[in-house]
Amino acid sequence: MLKEIIISIQSFFDAHRFIVKNKLWKWIIIPGIFYSILFIAGVYLFWVSSNSAIEFILLKTGVRNWLDSMHDSWLSFFFIVGQVILRLVLLLFYFSLFKFIFLIIGSPVFAYLSEKTESIIEGKDFPFNFKQLIKDIMRGIRIALRNILWQTVYIITILILSFFPLVGWVAPLVALLVECYYFGFSMLDYSSERNKLSAAQSIQLIGRHKGLAIGNGLVFYLLNLIPVIGWLFAPSYAVIAATLSLISARKKNVII
Predict the structure, then answer these.
(1) Cα three-residue angle 247-248-249, rounded to 5 degrees
(2) What pTM was estimated for this model as a whole?
(3) What number of CA atoms fall less than 13 Å from residue 177's CA on the CB side?
(4) pLDDT tens-digit series, residues 153-172
(5) Taking the CB of residue 68, how many other CB atoms lie within 10 A of it?
(6) Closest C-alpha among 86, 95, 80 to residue 45
(7) Taking 60 as the threshold, does the pLDDT of residue 256 lie above it?
(8) Left if phi > 0, otherwise alpha if psi is -120 to 50, otherwise beta: which for 80?
(9) Cα separation of 95 and 100, whole Å?
(10) CA–CA dist 111, 139 (Å, integer)
(11) Contact assessment for residue 226 and residue 245, using Cβ atoms and an 8 Å cutoff
C-alpha cells in the first residue's frame, strides 16, 4: 500500500507538469472557482451549526448534566479533549457531504478531464458521444451516492467511538483516512468507466489498491489547507493525478 500511496502523491507533481505542458488551465480555474465558492459556504455553514449540534448531542445523551454533577477536573479535561475531537469528526462529516455534492455537480468536467488526460498520454482518441457522456455522469452520481452511504456508516461509527477517552482520540485520524479513500475512489472511477469496467469491477479493483485512492485523497485534503490557491487547484488536479497514477501503476506492474 505504501508504494501505491507514493505513486499517487507523485502523480500530483506529474499532473502540474502535464497541465502546464498541455495548457489545460481553463479546465482547472473554472471548476476551481465554483469549488472555492462552495467550500467557503460549507465552512460557514459548519461553524454556524456545529456548536448547536454538539450541544444537542451532549444534552440528549445526558453527558452535560452528568459532568456538571461530578465536579472533577480530570473529567473536565477529557471532556474538553472529547469536544475538540468530536468537532474534528463533525468537520470531516460536513466536508464529506459538501464534497460529494460537488462531485455530482462537477462529474461532466471531471469525466472530460480524465478522458483528456488519458487521450494525451496514451495517444488514444475518445470521440465525443453524448449518450456515453450521460452514462458517465449517471455512473458518477451512482458511485458518489454509494460512497456517501458507506462513508456515512463509517463516520457515524467513528463518531460514537469519539465519545470514549483514549480510544476516541484516534477517531479524527481514522475518519480522515476514510475520507481520503472515498474521495480518491471517485477520482479513480472515471478511468475505470472509460476502460469498460463495471461499477462492481471498479469497486474490486480500487479495493485491492487502496493506496492509490488514499494518496489521492490525502493530497486533495492538504491542498484544501492552502487558502484560495489550494481550493482552486485541488479538484481538477486530483482527477488528473488519479488518471496519471493508474497509468503509472500499470506501467510499474503495481496494478493486478
Answers:
(1) 90
(2) 0.76
(3) 8
(4) 887 787 677 666 666 667 77
(5) 9
(6) 95
(7) no
(8) alpha
(9) 9
(10) 10
(11) no
